[in-house]
Design goal:
Chain lengths: ~550, ~550
């Protein structure tokens, strides 16, 4: 005896008692069931079966955790896209503590997408969070879970981060565009770039990378041929959480809170990030030493290694603040100084949050920071490395940085003007705008998918040596036979001789992505020829599939 | 593409609310499916992919069929629907008479008859019709359709009419339960194409008479490359096998099946009488005055001419009779040399008498020299001088052999001096002459047409069995990707097997692994030779995999 759970794609073998219970359970309570079936079966066995079913219920099998009256997303707003969100942790309505930029970005993006799409977010169990936000049980790569995703007809799939490569195999099964964000572009000994290149290899023509600034596109553009796969969509800031406050009043409050009266009386330079060397902690300390009359206020989870060394007296550390109170601390800054060299600054969410509080920033010309600052702050020249050393993507001079900070502190008018500009500029980056751009991207990718040939003709390719008596040598060649795997003969001649590389590319395309073929060609014949061959091969593919 | 037949899991199908489901009881999942998927699943445990394609693609349309097939193969990849073990297929009810499809350049719309005129093929087919049903495809548009059909019927061959247009699938004219395809003439490009995605065993009978140019050799190499594990290349000469062994990595697909000799026709006769007949027929009395040496040149016309001039210059005391099966040039204009061309059955009838008029034969074991002539002439008791690349296994030890070194591109270096010496030696030593001819006669007695026919038929049986037992190629999901090397900042390509713990694989090996799923070892060897920087590595990589 078997029972099939169509919503979970699972089949279970059951006994007579369970069979009978399942017949009765929609209408009767456990007690009634025991009473009713007690005449037929031993009560202990019925209770055992009920307990087993209860475990199933907990796991969301056979019994739906989804309330019945929730209409299926299709029937409600049919215009709405149905998005699958693949993330590390389960759905949370809010993040309270400051965490890594990737989590903040993803959390805010998902929150703002809620207004525009129906979201299925994978997690530990099936549950309904909101009218259009559901949790979907997905644990590892079990067959039923993958089947469920295959059958769900999503419009698009959004990942939390490109570094989460365990979802890579799903690309093969889920027939919807994947949007893979790169919030962190490099560092970690090449691992970050390589995770990106891994996704790149597997991606189909209708998948995309979401990058927060063009700097990421430029970086990856150095490594890959298909640059159109990168879509720049800026991140946002919540202007209601991050807004300017009366500076003097805030300074006094912070001075009191930290028991550091000099904050109220001196100019304040702020640092708001993890306090570690790559983020510019060492440079920040050096700037503080250069400007002893200025108060350097930092807020970070810990002081890391710097807790054990003599710090300049004008460096004051504030404990980590809850996110909703960050604005109170940030508004005490006169200047926001962020000498990060980490190579992970694809955007600089903390920078944008400081700007939203009306604080003029001073940042090095590295990665995505200049694009966010625009003309609403000081971008200090810095030396960007082609390849990182450690996690450092460039070099920032403490004295140049100190000069820029000092200049801004002494020129009040410019400082105030830039502060206003920073707030204005920050207001143009909203999460809702990000969400709308992402929705537009989803729709565009869906359209690309619609226009992508589903029925691909793959020709018979063979490889053979041939005697070339003009050159007196044996040459290897590939033969394109005018017959497809589908037994069609679309071309005019029966046989065409091509180079081995071209034939190999066509042969590989039967099972591998275009980007994989790119990797193979790169290995065989270098960048320039790769691009030429790819162009030809894809042109041919495009023309024969109609 | 997924290869059927496959062993199915314990499957159960049901319908609910007009939706169809397949329950995979072994995997414990329910799979929503459509009609085409059901149709394929119903057929795939007993039929081959091709048969299913023809039946179902016609019913539902090709693109829908291949989409469904793609869906099924995705499910199969996650371990659903199919058991990994090989299906135990009952050998189709053993037929007493195998069905053999002949090819004769059918798709090129050539006349279908000329090859039947070739005497040896005629003999072979005559014997084959005693044991097998023979079919020959004939183009529907052929003007002489009726005539061809009648002609073939008298030969005991059934015609299969087909329409040769581009939408036509060649698989359609392979008779049901076909034992195999026998290609007696070198395959045309069209036939090559038509065999590309088929799983019927093919025997290519390679006749040396056709191998006179580089183009012809290249065609053979191309066909060699396409030989699958259950195909065979059957050479009529041992030296052909030796020649191609340089190109083919796995010689087990090569077989040497010699022609049969009808010793009741080709036998020693009264030499004086035969010489008189020949002299009368040619109107040339000088034949009676000097020893007559038969020459099988195996070279192109101008090379033959050069060879003959040199030989005549070295040995003016002999008469020469050029025996050639294809070249139409007449060498008589050059003085004492006569030319005898066997292209028709009438010629064939005269040939035992002509061969018996010879006093010696000069024969080359090079491509282009048909072993049939060697065997027939030796059967007439003519002592033989053989020169060439390898000693002929056919009459091992029963000839005077002169070894020359092979060359792919230079004109054949005919050892005229040695040939003259050997001829003189034979004529001066009647005992030696007698020994050679006796040894030849005893070697020839083993070659009969019945033997040739039986060997071809049993080869078909072997191929069928081999195909049935052939393990499916190991399928790995391989991913090719670019990899960023943080040490030098350069992009390198790498490949790995996609699994829970991705295993890196050397690029060349990965390319070979992927290709081996659809291509023959010879093709993969060709590719590896082109892409491996060190030539020895190609052998090593392939050796590891095959």
């Amino acid at each position: 005896m078997y029972v099939a759970d169509l919503s979970q794609c699972i089949v279970l073998e059951i006994n007579n008692i369970t069979w009978d219970i399942l017949d009765l359970c929609p209408a009767l309570s456990s007690e009634d069931i025991i009473e009713r079936l007690g005449r037929k079966y031993d009560v202990d066995l019925i209770i055992e079966a009920l307990n087993t079913l209860a475990t199933m219920e907990q796991r969301g099998i056979l019994f739906s955790n989804l309330a019945r009256d929730i209409p299926a997303p299709e029937t409600k707003a049919s215009e709405r896209l149905k998005i699958l969100v693949l993330q590390k942790s389960t759905y949370a309505t809010d993040i309270t503590k400051a965490t890594g930029g990737v989590s903040v970005a993803h959390h805010n993006l998902v929150k703002s997408l809620e207004a525009h799409a129906s979201l299925d977010i994978i997690g530990e169990s099936d549950e309904v969070f909101k009218e259009n936000v559901r949790g979907i049980r997905f644990q590892g790569n079990d067959q039923a879970a993958i089947l469920k995703l295959i059958g769900s007809n999503y419009d698009a799939v959004l990942l939390e981060s490109h570094q989460d490569t365990r979802f890579l195999s799903l690309l093969h099964y889920i027939d919807a565009p994947f949007v893979v964000p790169i919030y962190c572009a490099r560092g970690h000994n090449g691992d970050v770039i390589n995770a990106g290149l891994l996704w790149y290899a597997a991606m189909r023509p209708f998948d995309a990378f979401l990058v927060p600034t063009n700097s990421v596109k430029d970086l990856y553009g150095r490594f890959v041929c298909d640059k159109d796969i990168f879509h720049t969509i800026s991140l946002g800031v919540d202007p209601h959480k991050f807004y300017p406050l009366d500076k003097q009043q805030t300074k006094s409050e912070v001075a009191k809170m930290l028991n550091a009266p000099q904050i109220a009386t001196s100019p304040v330079v702020g640092f708001f990030s993890r306090f570690q060397p790559e983020k510019g902690a060492g440079i920040y300390i050096k700037i503080a030493r250069r400007l002893p009359h200025v108060c350097f206020l930092l807020t970070a989870p810990t002081l890391n290694i710097y807790a054990h060394q003599q710090l300049p007296p004008n460096l004051i550390c504030a404990p980590q603040q809850p996110r909703h109170q960050l604005a109170r601390l940030l508004s005490a800054f006169d200047v926001y100084c962020f000498p990060s060299m980490v190579g992970e600054e694809t955007f600089g969410l903390a920078l944008l949050e400081a700007m939203a509080c009306g604080i003029p920033p001073v940042v090095p010309k590295l990665d995505g920071l200049p694009e966010v600052v625009g003309d609403a702050g000081i971008v200090v020249p810095a030396e960007a490395y082609e390849n990182e050393i450690g996690s450092f993507a460039g070099r920032v001079s403490p004295s140049v940085m100190a000069d820029a900070v000092n200049a801004l502190l002494t020129d009040e008018q410019t400082r105030l003007e830039l502060g206003e500009k920073a707030r204005e500029r920050a207001l143009t980056f909203t999460w809702d705008k990000t969400a709308q751009n992402v929705i537009t991207l989803f729709r565009r990718l869906k359209e690309i998918q619609r226009l992508t040939d589903r029925y691909k003709r793959h020709f018979g390719i063979s490889f053979t040596p041939a005697l070339n008596n003009r050159r007196r040598r044996v040459e290897n060649q590939s033969i394109l036979s005018n017959i497809t795997v589908q037994k069609e003969r679309p071309l005019m001649n029966n046989r065409y001789a091509q180079s081995i590389e071209e034939g190999l590319s066509l042969a590989l395309l039967r099972k591998h992505s275009r980007h994989e073929v790119e990797a193979v060609l790169h290995h065989l014949c270098g960048e320039e020829r790769t691009e030429a061959i790819l162009e030809k091969i894809f042109g041919f593919e495009e023309a024969v599939n109609g | 593409m997924i290869q059927f037949p496959c062993n199915l899991h314990n499957l159960y199908q049901f319908e609910r609310d007009d939706e169809r489901f397949v329950v995979d009881l072994d995997a414990g999942v329910v799979i929503p499916v459509n009609d085409i998927v059901c149709d394929i699943l119903n057929a795939c445990s007993v039929s081959e992919t091709e048969v299913i394609t023809e039946a179902i693609a016609d019913k539902h349309g090709r693109s829908k069929f291949f989409e469904a097939l793609d869906f099924i193969s995705k499910l199969s990849e996650i371990g659903l629907l199919f058991s990994p073990d090989q299906p135990e297929i009952e050998p189709s009810q053993r037929r007493d008479r195998p069905k053999i499809l002949l090819t004769a350049g059918v798709l090129e719309s050539r006349k279908t008859t000329p090859f039947l005129l070739s005497a040896a093929n005629h003999q072979l087919l005559k014997m084959l019709t005693n044991h097998a049903d023979l079919y020959l495809p004939v183009s529907e548009t052929d003007n002489n359709r009726q005539e061809i059909e009648d002609g073939l019927r008298t030969e005991g061959i059934q015609s299969i009419f087909f329409r040769n247009d581009r939408s036509f699938s060649p698989a359609k004219f392979i008779p049901k339960d076909c034992t195999g395809v026998l290609a007696l003439a070198p395959l045309t490009v069209g036939e090559q194409v038509f065999l590309k995605f088929n799983t019927t065993p093919v025997i290519l009978r390679l006749s040396n008479a056709a191998l006179t140019s580089h183009k012809a050799i290249n065609t053979v190499l191309e066909r060699c490359a396409a030989l699958r594990d259950f195909d065979a290349f059957v050479c009529d000469a041992s030296w052909t096998q030796t020649f191609f062994s340089d190109f083919v990595p796995d010689m087990h697909v090569f077989h040497h099946i010699p022609y049969g000799i009808d010793t009741s026709v080709f036998r020693p006769m009264d030499k004086t009488k035969c010489k008189h007949q020949l002299s009368q027929a040619l109107g040339n009395e000088t034949i009676l005055q000097k020893p007559l040496v038969g020459i099988v040149p195996g070279l192109n016309s101008h090379e033959t001419l050069r060879f003959l001039r040199k030989l005549r210059f070295a040995n003016p005391d002999f008469n020469y009779l050029v025996i050639h099966s294809t070249v139409e040039d007449n060498f008589t204009g050059d003085g004492c040399v006569n030319f005898f061309n066997i292209v028709s059955l009438q010629d064939k009838e005269a040939s035992p008498f002509i061969f018996n008029a010879l006093d010696a034969l000069v024969f080359p074991t090079i491509l282009g020299a048909s072993p049939l002539l060697l065997l027939e002439i030796v059967a007439c008791g003519i002592p033989t001088v053989v020169w060439g690349y390898s000693e002929p296994e056919e009459i091992a030890g029963a000839c005077r052999f002169i070894q020359i070194s092979p060359s792919l591109f230079d004109p054949v270096d005919v050892p005229v001096e040695s040939i003259s010496q050997e001829l003189r030696f034979l004529f001066e030593n009647p005992n030696e002459q007698k020994d050679v001819l006796q040894a030849g006669l005893s070697a020839i007695s083993t070659y009969t047409w019945e033997e040739t026919t039986q060997r071809i038929l049993s080869l078909f049986v072997d191929l069928q069995n081999h195909k049935r037992r052939q393990p499916k190629p190991a399928k790995h999901r391989l991913l090719f990707r670019k990899h960023y090397n943080p040490v030098c900042g350069e992009i390198e390509s790498e490949a790995f097997v996609v699994s829970k713990i991705p295993t890196p694989v050397d690029m060349e090996q990965a390319i070979a692994m992927t290709l081996l799923e659809e291509h023959t070892p010879m093709e993969v060897k060709t590719v590896l030779q082109s892409i491996c920087k060190e030539p020895k590595r190609a052998e090593k990589v392939l050796g590891n995999l095959v």
